[in-house]
Amino acid sequence: MTQLTEHFTLAEMIVSPTAKRLGIPNTPTPAHIENMRYCCEKILEPVRAKFGPVTINSSYRAPLVNKAVGGSATSQHVNGQAIDFEVKGVDNKKVADWVADNLEFDQVILEFYAAGDKNSGWVHASIKKEGGNRKQRLVATKSKAGGTKYTPVKDFDPSTTKEAGAPVLETVAKVAKAAPKAAPPAVTGLGPMAALQAKCGVGADGKWGPGTFKAAKDYFKLSTAQAAHFFGQCSHESGGFKVFSENLNYSDKGLNGIFKKYFPTIASTAGYARKPEKIANKVYANRMGNGPESSGDGYKFRGRGPIQLTGKDNYTAFAKDIKRPDVLTNPDIVATELAFESALWFFNKNGLFAIADKGVTDAVIGQITRRVNGGTHGLDDRIKKTKQYAAWG
Fold first, then answer.
1. Are residues 146 and 234 in the same domain?
2. pTM over 0.85
3. Between 20 and 30 A from 300 (CA), which of 29, 111, 234, 339?
4. Is residue 107 part of a domain?
């Protein structure tokens, strides 16, 4: 059994009664599998953390299977970029509303839902790993002609927004309020830790400790558990709050070993070794919203902040969410005055505070680590730091 993420397998993502009944192979390619893994990481795991076990109705459909079920020729199911799902006992409208308010997505469609019947219909959600997600919210209903009608909506249920995602949405709102359009004079020119301290109203000495932890927890309106997980991960990822900008100063052997896709031989590294700007522009070109190598986007939008905000799409979304358009013209501020806001945005976007609410245990720290790191690298240190910060209260 192939495990895509902690709670979801490949088998449940490709199951199809129609394919079985008609004897049609429903076999994905490696690229399709990676798309499904991304759907699990970015949508299904956060939903499960918030609401509980998820029932998957449909994900990947081979082209012939998609045709047999009457799917659109452009359906994202064919690429493994979409899932249809439900959460037993939870209103589908509430689930759709929470996903659209709190997660990154391309489309969220509330399909064939009948008001008052929480078990009616299902939620369709999609996401594109390469970026360029459209953030479309749609409601699907039967048309008079018997087909399907898709109606765009601004919000599935504005009256339940707080209930559906209060902890995350409230935090985002507070961060936006805390980060004004122009940097306060007291923050300009300070390093990331000192900038955070200045905003929190404590001595801006750039040193991390219990006083800064408690002030930052209050400033960002986090619970003790949320703050412990957040700063525990930030501390490990930034080498003890020391590294806030991606180091791309690789040797020829380093390039060949780490970025083998772009530098398949030592000879191919000629002109790039020990040149961080050229390296970033090459390895980050034409993905995450970046332009070609010649655009310079790779280096301009390289990893910054304690959890390394990377790529033009992410910088653009972050700038929009905290109402700071200057992030796009002066991205270096993500490594200084907005470093921790960028990491907070990552936690919100990936539903990590909902997981943090489960408590400060080894299992929960491990779950969040896999979302942040993609594995469990440095888990012992993350556990130590998170529990230490939780004890600070």
1. no
2. no
3. 234
4. yes
Contact 232/385 with Cβ under 8 angstroms? yes
Shared domain for 336 and 206, answered yes or no, is: yes
What CATH number does the domain containing 221 carry? 1.10.530
The reply to whether 2 falls in a domain is no
Does 208 map to a domain?
Answer: yes
In contact, 210 and 256? CB cutoff 8 Å:
no
> Please, is 333 exposed, middle or buried when counting C-beta atoms within 10 Å of its C-beta (0-12, 13-18, 19+)?
buried
Which among 192, 194, 185 is positioned nearest to 341, based on CA atoms? 192
List, for residues 221-275, the tens digit of each pLDDT value.
999 999 999 999 999 999 999 999 999 999 999 999 999 999 999 999 999 999 9
Integer Cα distance of 170 and 155 in angstroms: 17
Same domain, yes or no, for 201 and 345? yes
Same domain? 386 vs 333? yes
Whole-angstrom distance, CA of residue 339 vs CA of residue 155: 30
Residue 3 lies in a domain: no
**Number of compact structural domains in the chain:** 3
**In a shared domain, residues 112 and 193:** no
Spatial distance between the Cα atoms of 349 and 86, rounded to a whole number of angstroms: 21
Domain CATH code at residue 103: 3.30.1380.10
Burial of 66: CB neighbours in 10 Å, binned 0-12, 13-18, 19+: buried
Same domain, yes or no: 218 and 346: yes
Structural domain of 283: 252-300
Measured in whole angstroms, the distance separating CA 338 from the mean position of its chain's CA atoms is: 18
Q: What is the pLDDT of residues 49-83, one digit of tens each?
A: 998 999 999 999 999 988 888 888 889 999 999 99
How do residues 350-379 score in pLDDT, each as one tens digit?
889 989 999 999 999 999 999 998 889 999
| pLDDT for position 157 | 73
Task: Determine which helix (DSSP H) or strand (DSSP E) holds 258, and give its type and residue range.
Answer: helix 252-258
98 contacts 161 by C-beta, under 8 angstroms: no
321-330 pLDDT, tens digit per residue, is 999 999 999 9
| Distance (Å, whole) CA 368 – CA 233 | 8
Tell me the two tokens of residue 342. Answer: 């960028």
Q: Read out DSSP for 160-195? A: GHHHHHHHHHHHHHHHHHHS-SS--TTTTT--HHHH
